């Protein structure tokens, strides 16, 4: 079974955090945070349609320029989502350059800033020399992007400044039962993608498919689809250790297949973690365990542990796998 999301950190855990998520059925990709992304290949950059930024500290946002430069001639818009100041930060980046020769370029950047219970959408288009246009304000109810295949949710956490965490959730996963397919005498082929799309989009049962020159109704094909729970990945970084944050994170990431979470400090440096509004690896391990996540990937370590034999990952995993609940 091919997963819908294929996800990998762009860098080692001692470098800038950025998670690259490929959507297998759509030839597109997302980025969660946009730190240094020089390790991504040009063809990967071209796939990125949506960037979800937790906050705009430099280690989470410096890669915006790299992506902008790669996408200037792309027709498909780039969408950027972030906390309340994200639009100002994108505008500031764009104002840092001179744009008198880009009128014929097609790129538009749509920015969505989450502020309390509202989302403000703005856009910057190259034909307009990237001047900011504020569009509309909509209600924020926890969901920042919904498509037939998946939903992206966000939660507002505290890092002295507002910081978002994100999850990507597939509604459900459709597997094709090959045994039934064979019994019905149906061939494997591209029609299966159309069929899955129709199921996902809840099309009417009399929708027709032409397979090997024969007509079939959607309702008569339903037996070949086996529906299972969809994939869920979550991304949490740069949050302070306080009871409210931790309770909210546990609820938000609950049941994830994979949780990507910071472990900037180790427990021996808890004081420092509190001063810098970061988690410790022990707290990260506890959150993952309590939330019942299947896999924990820790990231964003302080460089001070580079030569440690006991790493932030070791510490987090001891806590995560500790069985004495
Ligand atoms: Zn950071
Ligand atoms: Zn930060």
Describe this structure in words.
It is a single chain. The chain is α/β, with parallel strands linked by helices. The longest helix is centred in the C-terminal third of the chain and has 11 residues, at 243-253. The model has no long low-confidence stretch (mean pLDDT 94). It contains eleven helices and 18 strands. It has an eight-stranded mixed sheet. Strands 9-10-11-16-17-18 form a six-stranded mixed sheet. The protein has three domains: 1-171 and 230-238, Ribonuclease Z/Hydroxyacylglutathione hydrolase-like (Metallo-beta-lactamase, Chain A), CATH 3.60.15.10; 172-229, no CATH class; 239-325, no CATH class. It binds zinc ion (2 copies).
Oligomer: single chain
For the record, the CATH class of the largest domain is Alpha Beta
CATH homolog superfamily of the largest domain: Ribonuclease Z/Hydroxyacylglutathione hydrolase-like
Q: Quickly count the helices.
A: 11
Summarize the structure.
The protein is built from 11 helices and 18 strands. The chain is α/β, with parallel strands linked by helices.
Topology:
Elements: E1 5-9, E2 19-23, E3 28-32, H1 42-47, E4 48-52, H2 58-61, H3 64-71, E5 78-83, H4 86-95, E6 108-115, E7 118-125, E8 132-139, E9 143-146, E10 150-159, E11 161-170, E12 172-176, H5 178-183, H6 191-200, E13 208-211, E14 214-217, H7 218-221, E15 225-229, E16 232-236, H8 243-253, E17 258-262, H9 270-276, H10 281-290, E18 295-299, H11 312-321
Parallel strand pairs: 3-4, 4-5, 5-6, 16-17, 17-18
Antiparallel strand pairs: 1-2, 2-3, 6-7, 7-8, 9-10, 10-11, 11-16, 12-15, 13-14
One zinc ion (ZN) is lined by residues 55, 57, 159, 238.
């Amino acid at each position: 079974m091919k997963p819908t999301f294929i996800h990998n950190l762009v860098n080692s855990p001692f470098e800038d955090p950025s998670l690259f998520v490929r959507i297998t059925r759509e030839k597109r990709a997302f980025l969660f945070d946009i730190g240094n992304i020089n390790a991504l290949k040009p063809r990967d950059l071209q796939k990125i349609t949506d960037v979800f930024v937790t906050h705009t500290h430099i280690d989470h946002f410096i890669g915006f320029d790299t992506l902008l430069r790669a996408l200037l001639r792309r027709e498909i818009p780039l969408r950027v989502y972030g906390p309340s100041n994200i639009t100002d930060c994108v505008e500031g980046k764009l104002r840092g350059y001179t744009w008198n020769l880009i009128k014929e370029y097609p790129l538009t950047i749509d920015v969505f800033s989450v502020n309390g219970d509202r989302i403000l959408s703005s856009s910057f288009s190259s034909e307009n020399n990237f001047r900011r246009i504020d569009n509309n304000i909509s209600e924020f109810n926890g969901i920042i992007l919904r498509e037939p295949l998946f939903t992206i949710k966000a939660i507002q956490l505290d890092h002295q400044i507002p910081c978002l965490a994100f999850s990507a959730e597939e509604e459900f996963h459709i597997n094709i039962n090959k045994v039934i397919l064979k019994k019905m005498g149906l061939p494997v082929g591209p029609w299966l993608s159309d069929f899955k799309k129709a199921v996902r989009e809840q099309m009417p049962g009399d929708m027709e498919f032409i397979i090997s020159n024969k007509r079939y109704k959607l309702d008569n094909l339903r037996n070949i689809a086996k529906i299972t729970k969809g994939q869920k990945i979550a991304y949490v970084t740069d949050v302070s250790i306080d009871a409210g944050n931790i309770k909210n994170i546990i609820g938000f990431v609950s049941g994830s297949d994979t949780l990507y979470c910071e472990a900037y400090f180790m427990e021996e440096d808890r004081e420092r973690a509190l001063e810098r509004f970061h988690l410790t690896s022990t707290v990260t391990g506890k959150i993952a365990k309590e939330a019942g996540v299947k896999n924990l990937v820790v990231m964003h370590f302080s460089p001070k542990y580079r030569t440690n034999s006991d790493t932030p990952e070791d510490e987090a995993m001891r806590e995560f796998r500790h069985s004495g609940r």
